[in-house]
Amino acid sequence: MDIRPYSERDADAVFEVHRRAFGGRTDEARIVQRLHDADEAVVSLVAVIDGRVVGHVLFSRVTVADCDVAIELVGLAPVGVLPENQNDGVGSSLIRQGLAACRAAGVDAVVVLGDPEYYSRFGFERASEYGLGNEYGADEAFMVEPLHGGALDGVDGVVTYRPEFEQAES
């Protein structure tokens, strides 16, 4: 398996990965399209096996309301893997390499809304322990991973995702 940065030529394959990974729903695939169209993808990686895109992960900027501390914070969403390639480590590899790419890009911390049991394997912890809430009202499932020591010092507030996440499917 090869993991590399997303390019525009991957758009159709990535759309299909997310559509199939999410049971035929296209919400996540359209979010990916909108974030790329708006040039808001901080890190976007594809997993390729035998020349075929089988997985994708995206990290985009998020903000913390009423926060006076300068921080580069991104959200991990979505991550998708073709059903026939799930449970083979593709998603885990995408997340690990995505976190490393975020760290290299100067990102301070990454948030995710997802299964605590799954994401804790990558170092994510409950965000409320760091004083971070979210616009969806989730607690246990809203997690953060600081990418360096002191990354979240003095940061607290409600994390807001990009407007591309709010747009209804069309």
Automatic annotation (TrEMBL):
Keywords: Acyltransferase, Transferase
Domain of life: Archaea
Assigned EC number: 2.3.-.-
Domain spans labelled N-acetyltransferase: 1-148
Transferase as UniProt keyword: yes
GO molecular-function terms, A-Z: acyltransferase activity
Pfam family of the protein (one): Acetyltransf_9
InterPro entries reported for this sequence: Acyl_CoA_acyltransferase, GNAT_dom, MshD_Acetyltransferase
PANTHER family xrefs: L-AMINO ACID N-ACETYLTRANSFERASE, UPF0039 PROTEIN SLL0451
Protein name: GNAT family N-acetyltransferase
